[in-house]
Design a protein that fits this description.
The chain has 105 residues and is mainly α. The protein is built from six helices and no strands. The longest helix has 18 residues, at 38-55.
Length: 105
């Protein structure tokens, strides 16, 4: 499946192109601190962590305990893993190949 075409526009393309220019984690911290709030970044990081745990067959209850994510957030991530654009799967495979799983996993 491909991404949702409602996302596609010049401004979003420019944002993604800018992100692709970041060279390391330090640059990511600097850029994302300026472009997003702490809570927005924490929410994105939490969703990725939830996806990692779901892929490792961790139960919803344990995921709630480990991440503080609500059951609604966990369900949303699970739905994206099962029926989404395969973005989580793509990045989780690449992270696994790089050997840097980070977080609680």
């Amino acid at each position: 499946m491909t991404y949702d075409n409602r996302l596609k526009d010049g401004a979003t393309d420019a944002l993604f192109e800018a992100i692709l220019l970041l060279r390391d984690v330090d640059e990511c911290y600097r850029f994302f601190q300026d472009i997003a709030t702490v809570s927005e970044l924490k929410a994105l990081a939490q969703r990725l962590e939830v996806a990692k745990l779901l892929e490792s067959d961790v139960t919803y209850l344990k995921i709630e305990e480990l991440t503080g994510a609500s059951s609604a957030t966990i369900s949303r991530v699970k739905r994206s893993l099962d029926y989404g654009a395969n973005g989580y799967t793509l990045i989780l495979e690449r992270v696994k190949q790089s050997g840097d799983m980070g977080g609680t996993v």
